[in-house]
Structure formats: C-alpha cells, structure tokens
Design goal:
Blueprint lengths: L1 H33 L3 H4 L14 H7 L10 H32 L5 H10 L9 H10 L6 H5 L6 H12 L3 H9 L4 H9 L4 H16 L3 H6 L10 H10 L4 H33 L4
Helix pairs in contact: 1-14, 3-14, 4-8, 4-11, 11-14, 13-14
C-alpha cells in the first residue's frame, strides 16, 4: 500500500512539474526577447538570450505618444487600472447587496426573480453583444468612462456565489442582532461584510482580471481616435499589428501590462488559498 502511495506521489509531482513547465514556457521565452534589438530577434540561427542586451524596447515604450500609434501607452495602462478597480468596488457592492437580499430578505416574486437571474448564467455574453452596444449607445454612454464600467457590474455568477455563502451563515446571528435593535443594513455591514472578506477578495480578483483583460468590449465602445479611454489590450494589439515597432517592443508592452495583475495575485494569494479550503468545509 505504501509503495503504491509513493508511486502515485511521484506521478503527481511529475504531472505538476509538466503543467508548470507548459504554463511558464511562453513567459520564459518571452522575457529574454524584451532585451533584444529588433535586428537580433529576426537573425538566424535563433538564440534564446541576447548577445547584446538592450533596454531600447522599454525606452521606446516610454516615448510612445499619440503621434506614433494614436494612444499613449502608460496613460492607457493607468486608465485600464482605474476602470478595473472602479468596477471591482461597484460590482462587489451591488452584487453583495443583491445577494444578501435574495438570501435573507422576503419580497414579492422572490423565487421567480431568482430563477430569471440564474437563467442569465446560461446565456453566452457574445450572443447579446450587439444588443448591449445598442443599449449603451441609446443611453449615450459610448466613448465614456461609464460605458466601460457599468455594463459588466452585475453578474449572475457573482450573485449566486455570494448568495450561497450568505446562506451558510447561521440565521441565529441575524435574530440576535435584531433583538439588540440592529437594522437590516446594520446586520449586513456589521455581520455579513466582515465575514465575507475571503469571498470578496476571490470574486474581486476575478472581476479585476475580467475588466483588465477585456478587448472586444472596449474596442466596440471607444470609437474615437486618440481617446484617453483606450484600454491597454487595444494598445498591445496595435503594436502587434504594426511591424514597424517589432516583436521586442510588443513583448515589452505585454510584460509591463502583466505586472499589476501579478502584484495583485501575490497580495491576495492567501485569501485565494483560504477560499479553496473554505469550499471543502461544510
């Protein structure tokens, strides 16, 4: 029995190592290219590391302006972070309040409304893209900050996630708080919010990555040239499509854009681990 357990452990370690290798191999190949000149990337035979490392790709990235590619790289990076963080705050607030209402409050047609909410989980977002664009256009939200943030704030999945978490909190806490004279809002803010830090961080990280990596929606909503609202994925695609900038500069842009979400995940990894453990506890 012990021998079979040891063999299974070895197999699991080998599989884990292969998965990690597959995940990090593109990054391992990408990073050395950042320090290569444009002429060195295209030479034959190809070599992984630069013979003459250079920081020109980062310097050229810092000098990208509206006159060269129509947008400013670091302004777009800042705007993408601002959009993503704003969406995290408002999305968590809206979804948690609504989830608390579905979990604890009583109101007319509650079950029917909840079933309609769940139904939207099975509708692919791409199928309602044109409809969403028409609604945003009718509301005069194209080429606006709100047009980037508002349409994705409410999520049936996030509602379902928080509702199930709130249902796991003992009702006795609500009853005890009511006996002490606490209002519904005080129960939510004083009891439910402090107990929801881990799921808030997990869902918040997911919301952040969804907005930060968004490409199709910003391109459909931001139609003005030289817009200050241009998102970072659009800038990277512009660099990738224009051969005059070279692969090294495109990779440098992708590498810099990768740093903010990497920092966030390093900070919140403890909460993500706690959330995984939480799913196994009844």
């Amino acid at each position: 029995m012990k021998k079979r357990l040891k063999t299974s452990d070895i197999i699991l370690k080998i599989v884990s190592a292969l998965v990690v290798l597959l995940i990090f191999f593109p990054i391992f190949v990408m990073i050395p290219s950042i320090f290569k000149a444009k002429t060195e990337i295209n030479i034959y035979p190809w070599h992984l590391f630069s013979l003459k490392p250079t920081f020109d790709n980062f310097r050229r990235l810092a000098w990208l302006s509206y006159t060269s590619i129509g947008v400013n790289y670091f302004r777009s990076l800042f705007m993408t972070l601002l959009v993503s963080l704003t969406a995290v705050v408002f999305s968590l607030t809206i979804n948690m309040i609504a989830a608390y209402a579905f979990a604890r409050l009583k109101f007319p047609f509650k079950k029917i409304i909840w079933m309609l909410v769940l139904f939207t989980m099975f509708i692919p977002g791409i199928t309602i893209l044109i409809t969403s664009i028409r609604v945003v256009n009718d509301l005069h939200m194209t080429n606006t900050f709100m047009g980037l943030v508002v349409p994705g704030l409410v999520s049936a999945y996030n509602l379902f996630f928080f509702r199930q978490f709130f249902l796991g909190i003992p009702v006795d806490l609500d009853e005890a708080a009511m006996m002490d004279g606490a209002s519904t809002w005080q129960i939510f803010t004083k009891i439910y919010l402090p107990m929801s830090v881990t799921p808030m961080v997990i869902i918040g990280a997911s919301i952040f990555m969804g907005y930060y990596n968004s490409y199709i929606w910003p391109n459909m909503i931001i139609t003005e040239n030289n817009s200050k609202l241009t998102q970072i994925m659009t800038v990277i695609s512009i660099l990738n499509a224009d051969s005059t900038y070279g692969y090294g500069q495109t990779v440098a842009a992708a590498f810099v854009a990768m740093i903010p979400p990497l920092i966030i995940f390093v900070v919140v990894q403890k909460y993500i681990r706690d959330g995984i453990q939480l799913t196994g506890v009844k």
